[in-house]
Each structure stands twice: as C-alpha cells, then as structure tokens.
Amino acid sequence: MIHFVGAGPGDPELITLKGRSLLEQADIVIYAGSLVSKAHLDYCKQSCERYDSAGMTLEEVMEVAIRGDREGKSVVRLHTGDPTIYGAIREQMDFLKQNRVEYTVVPGVSSFTASCAAIKREFTVPDVSQTVIITRLEGRTPVPELESLEKLASHRASMAIFLSVGDIERVVEKLAEGYGSRDVPVAVVYKATWSEQKIISGTLEDIAQKVRDAKIDRFAQILVGYFIEGEYGRSLLYHPEFTHGYRQGTE
User: Fold this and answer.
1) Tens digits of per-residue pLDDT, 90-126?
2) Last residue of a domain, one of 62, 80, 106
3) What is the rounded CA–CA span in Å between residue 242 and residue 227?
4) Integer Cα distance of 72 and 1 in angstroms
5) Are residues 119 and 202 in the same domain?
6) Does residue 116 sit in the same domain as residue 90?
7) Phi, psi angle pair for 188, to nearest 5°
8) CATH code at 158?
9) Alpha-carbon gap, residue 115 to 107, rounded angstroms
10) In degrees rounded to 5, what are phi and psi of residue 226?
C-alpha cells in the first residue's frame, strides 16, 4: 500500500497522529527533501529505506513506490504541508491507478493555515471576509487567465498566495490593481512553524521593499486582506441574543 502523507508546514509535531503512525510502520519513505523537516525521519524504523525525491522524476518516484508495494512493503510518500494543495499528487495517483496499485491520502496542516496562526489572525471574520482564496502567481507554471491575481483580488476576499514571494514586486502590482488601493494589509511569513520563521508585516505600499530588505525570496506565504488589520463584526455564534440548535438566545 502507498500512503500519501502530509507532513505539515515544518514543525515535526504538526503532522497528524495517523501520519506519524504510518511513518513509524513504513518500510520505504519517499520524502520531499527540499521542504520536509528531516526530523520526521527520526520516527522511522532503522530498516526503513529513505529516498529524497528532490532530485527524482515522477517516473523514478513511482518506480520505487510500486516496487515496494509489489514486495508487500508499506510505502509512505511524505509531502510538505497538505498534499492536496500544490502537492502534484494527482499525476502520482493516476500513475498508481494505471498500474493497479492501491493508495491512501492522509491530510496535513497546510502552510497557509500555519501562517495565519503565526500572525494570530483568522481568515474568516464577520463583515470583512467569509472567503479564502488560495492561489499563486503565474511563472513557469501557468495560471488560468480567469485566476489572475488582479481578478481574484477584486473580490477583496482573504488571500493566501503560495510560491510567489520571489517576484513580490509583480505580486504587489497585480494585487494593487485588483484592490484599487495600496493601503491593503499584507503579512509575509517565511518558513511558518520552523525555528527560523520570520514575519514581515506591512501594506501593498511597502511590503515589497521590506521583503527584499529581509532577503526573503522563497519558502514564504503571502497573506493579503483586511482580515489582518481593521474593524470586524462580532460573531453571531456566541452572541447572547442569537438562537441556534444548542442554545436559546435572550431577547
């Protein structure tokens, strides 16, 4: 059996209990070495085969995984964060289907939620935003035209932007066009939950220079929106006058 496991954003304690258990039982682990904390490998048994996929192709990864499955071994494909977000797992799963290999997917803590936790904020707050947009700037990997940053920013929803801090100036220009303002709160979180985590706060007006001054050009989340700073409404869920299935509100 092949198990796709989300390792979480960095802190090895943020893997799920199920993910940790599968690691402890694994005979083969193929891990994303450029992104996953090596501390996770400390929980593998001594006999476990370890493969760093940073320098491997899809075909090479699948060859190791399928060989292990056919030998009756438990194989863990360890991805950073949550494997369902920018994890490139669809092509791996399709490859396994074509070869009639069974697999499971174990979710993990994504860097976008870890980053929001790091700045001690909530993406969805009343009267501000009830929507979170997870996206990226187009680069060598294209983005559909309808999903361009400026079009998404025009919704003024909370945004979490992956894989884009290396081109922060272009990110800012597109966001400013969409928002129609540069007075929009931004937080850039470098390596959320790692020991070297850094948080850079500002607005679309000044964030690019702050990020350059901090020499951050990768491994960072860009969080954008008025959920970061500004007024918001009180939640009805705990409002004394609000009635729901578990509590009668006061008049």
Assistant:
1) 999 999 999 999 999 999 999 999 999 999 999 999 9
2) 106
3) 23
4) 8
5) yes
6) no
7) -110, 120
8) 3.30.950.10
9) 17
10) -80, 0
The answer to whether the Cα torsion of 98, 100, 103, 105 is positive or negative is: positive
Decide if 214 is inside a domain.
Answer: yes
**Residue-wise pLDDT tens digits, 155-188:** 999 999 999 999 999 999 999 999 999 999 999 9
Residue 248 placed within a domain: no
**How many domains does the structure of the chain reveal?**
2
Strands 103-106 and 2-6: parallel
Residues 15 and 7: beta-carbon distance below 8 Å: yes
Show the domain range for 166: 111-224
Beta bridge pairs of residue 8: 81
